[in-house]
Structure formats: structure tokens, C-alpha cells
Design brief:
Blueprint: H1 4-14, E1 20-27, E2 32-39, E3 55-57, H2 63-75, E4 96-101, E5 107-111, H3 118-122, H4 135-144, H5 155-159, H6 176-186, H7 193-205, H8 218-222, E6 229-230, E7 236-237, E8 261-263, H9 264-276, H10 284-291, H11 299-305, H12 308-314, E9 324-326, E10 331-333, E11 346-350, E12 354-359, E13 364-369, H13 378-395
Antiparallel strand pairs: 1-2, 1-13, 3-8, 4-5, 6-7, 9-10, 10-11, 11-12, 12-13
Family: Belongs to the class-A beta-lactamase family.
Organism: Exophiala dermatitidis (Black yeast-like fungus)
Keywords: Hydrolase
């Protein structure tokens, strides 16, 4: 018998509400409980059937991989969560806070009095933001001629931005994880982040279709999904018109916050390893720390998540009213959501409407792999919610 999700997505694909997706769920023992692909990778003649090995840009689903890389370096004594990041990245020794603009639209900056730490970066309590998601930063970037969209060239070119508040005294989703990835590179002899991940994450897990650079990996490039886009009128067209929503070229740097390409069958291996706490990537205590809620005061993140527009991007399908904290690896539900996730579940999403979650209490993890624009697509979020509910029903 078809599940509610299967019926809904089959209908949505047939009516061209969504092109398609690939979904996988696993249990705490690493066993696959559900795996299926639906629809096509695009509308029109360029579309091919979605497969579990169809590759796509992960966007912010990259972040959990970088968090794992950071924790591996912490285990080795190469990095500390609480030392100033300027010990590794000297450009942050004199961090400044953007407080506004004068009558001539010149940025008003003041020196930060607190040091940025790696823990601040991983929890988005650093004060760093994304230009397109913050009006102050967008105005600042335009005034200085900095890129408005990312990834473009290098992390230092794109993301050497002023802070929006003193480190630890706010919550702002942004480019912090890209800088964390840069720290991993620096303490490993300056190698690319992708090279580090290949050796320490992808190879141990057998992730053969995951890369920052599809041009250098034909198997990844040849499987890339299209970039279908929903217009404001609701019509699905074959190509996203806003190039700022997708890397127009491979940047010089490996962006630890948004640069990976992968597929459902690869990505679920990372989710399964962390859910099982199998020791392949991290010691048990490091995994515990990765999931532990880190924010002592949740009022800042809650203020963001209680904004409906922000929640559509940062708590996709959950809406407002859910209590959140943030761990080193993603957002953590404080109380859980009835019929879906339990308290302590960690999750995050990627711009092309892809989602992942890990519920250690119930022993369920999953990925909804997609490559559909723009982000925060309501019909897709409804389908993801149905998929997640069905997985909990199947788990009993």
C-alpha cells in the first residue's frame, strides 16, 4: 500500500507541481528503511528520471560535513572550539561590528571587544551573516563593491565582512561555517577542504559521488540534476533565472558552508554514520558534543525562527512556534514536534529545497534530496513533512 507521501508526490509530479526528488531513511543500526526516487530531474525534454544517485548542489547541506571535519581536528588537537580563531586566521584579530551608516551612507564600524571562537562559528553566534539575508550587510557590500551572491571566488573575498553583533551576543545565519572550513585547511598544511574530506569523511564512508568540484569528477558532473524553477505565478520552468541562486562557476575555494555536490545514496551514509555513532568518523563523545544544544540563551535564535519568512528558510516545513536551539552540527528541536521529530533532533536544509534530519532518540534519520528553486518552496515543504511523518509511522 502506498504511503500518504507516495500518493502525494506521485500526484504532484503528475500535475507538474514539482519535478521530482529522491528520499532515503535509515535506522540507528544503519539499515535502510526506505529509499525511493520520484519524477524527473527537470521539466521538459532535458529531464531524466530521478535516481538515488542523481547528483545535485548540496548548498547548506554541506555544513554538517564541515562540522564533522572540524570535530576531527579538535580530536587531534589541531583546533580548539574556544580559542580565538585569529590564532589560525589572523585577519580576524581586529574584527569590527557594523552598527549602521552615516548621512553619506558610509559604514559605521566599531571594534569588537570579544574574540571570535570556533564554537561561535559552528553555532552561528559569531555575528557573521549572509549578504543577501541581511539588509545592513547588503548595503555594506554594495557600498564596497563586494559580491552579493556566493560562492563566487574565494572565502576571503566573499566573506571578510563586519560582524553584526559581539560574538556570542546574538544569532545570525551566515558564512561562519565557510570560515570554519578555512581553519580546517590551515591546520592541515593548507590542503583544500575537499581533499581533507575525501580522505577523512568520504573514503571511510564509501561516498564516491560527493565533491566540491564536479568538473574534476565526471561521475558527479554527468549525474547532475537540472535546475527547475517555480515562477511567482506558480509555473515550473526548466532553468532558474536568478544565477545568484546557484554557483555560476566553480569558485577558487572549497566553501565549507555551501560548496558540495552529492546524491541521496551518498549523503545518507553521513547521516547514518552520525545516527549510529559508529566510530567511523568521530569518537562517541565528539558525536555527543556535535548534537548538544550549545546556546545558553535561546532568545536570539528563537526571535529569528519566530519570524515566518525566516522560518520558511531555516525551519522548513515546521513553521513558527517550534522551540529551537543550535548545536555544532545544526538546529536542534527543544521539545520536538508531535507526529514527527522528538526533542533533541538535529536538522538542516539546503537552498535547492533539500532537507536532512537525525533523531537519535527515536533512531531515525533521513534525507530529502532535491534540486528545485527558489528556496522555501511551500509544496515541496509539505511533501517533506509528509515523508518525515510517514517514516515515523513506519518506525512505529
Amino acid at each position: 500500500m502506498a504511503t500518504a507521501f507516495e500518493e502525494a508526490i506521485t500526484k504532484a509530479v503528475a500535475e507538474e507541481v514539482v519535478p521530482g526528488a529522491a528520499v532515503i531513511a535509515v535506522d540507528k543500526n544503519g539499515a535502510t528503511k526506505y529509499a525511493k526516487a520520484f519524477g524527473n530531474t527537470n521539466v521538459g525534454p532535458t529531464g531524466k528520471p530521478w535516481q538515488l544517485d542523481t547528483t545535485m548542489w548540496l548548498a547548506s547541506c554541506t555544513k554538517i560535513s564541515t562540522a564533522v571535519a572540524v570535530m576531527q581536528c579538535v580530536e587531534k588537537g589541531l583546533l580548539s572550539l574556544d580559542n580565538p580563531i585569529s590564532n589560525i586566521l589572523p585577519e580576524w584579530k581586529e574584527a569590527e561590528i557594523l552598527t549602521g551608516f552615516d548621512e553619506n551612507d558610509k559604514p559605521i564600524l566599531k571594534k569588537a571587544t570579544k574574540s571570535l571562537t570556533l564554537r561561535h562559528l559552528l553555532t552561528h553566534s559569531s555575528g557573521l551573516g549572509y549578504v543577501r539575508m541581511n539588509p545592513l550587510l547588503e548595503k555594506y557590500a554594495k557600498a564596497l563593491g563586494k559580491p552579493l551572491d556566493h560562492p563566487q571566488t574565494t572565502i576571503r573575498d566573499d566573506f571578510k565582512l563586519p560582524l553584526l553583533f559581539e560574538p556570542g551576543e546574538g544569532w545570525e545565519y551566515g558564512c561562519s561555517i565557510d570560515w570554519a572550513g578555512k581553519m580546517v585547511e590551515e591546520v592541515n598544511g593548507g590542503i583544500r577542504l575537499g581533499e581533507y574530506m575525501e580522505k577523512n569523511i568520504f573514503e571511510p564512508l564509501g561516498m564516491t559521488l560527493t565533491s566540491f568540484r564536479p568538473s574534476e569528477h565526471p561521475a558527479v558532473k554527468d549525474r547532475l540534476a537540472g535546475r527547475p524553477f517555480r515562477t511567482p505565478e506558480g509555473k515550473v520552468i526548466p532553468e532558474a533565472p536568478n544565477v545568484g541562486m546557484y554557483p555560476v562557476q566553480e569558485p577558487q575555494d572549497d566553501y565549507g558552508g555551501a560548496g558540495l555536490h552529492s546524491c541521496a545514496q551518498d549523503y545518507i551514509k553521513l547521516i547514518a554514520s552520525l545516527l549510529a555513532n559508529d566510530g567511523k568518523l568521530l569518537k562517541s563523545e565528539s558525536v555527543d558534543e556535535l548534537f548538544r544544544p550549545q546556546l545558553k540563551d535561546t532568545k536570539y535564535i528563537q526571535a529569528v525562527m519566530d519570524n515566518p519568512e525566516a522560518a520558511a528558510f531555516l525551519a522548513p516545513s515546521f513553521g513558527t512556534g517550534v522551540k529551537w536551539n543550535y548545536a555544532l552540527g545544526g538546529a536542534v528541536a527543544v521539545d520536538g514536534v508531535e507526529g514527527r521529530i522528538d526533542a533533541g533532533t538535529m536538522h538542516w536544509a539546503g537552498l535547492p529545497n533539500s532537507f536532512w534530519w537525525i533523531d537519535r532518540h527515536r533512531g531515525i534519520g533521513g534525507v530529502y534530496a532535491n534540486h528545485f528553486f527558489p528556496p522555501a518552496d511551500p509544496p515541496t515543504q509539505k511533501l517533506f513533512a509528509l515523508f518525515q511523518r510517514d517514516m515515523y509511522t513506519l518506525a512505529g
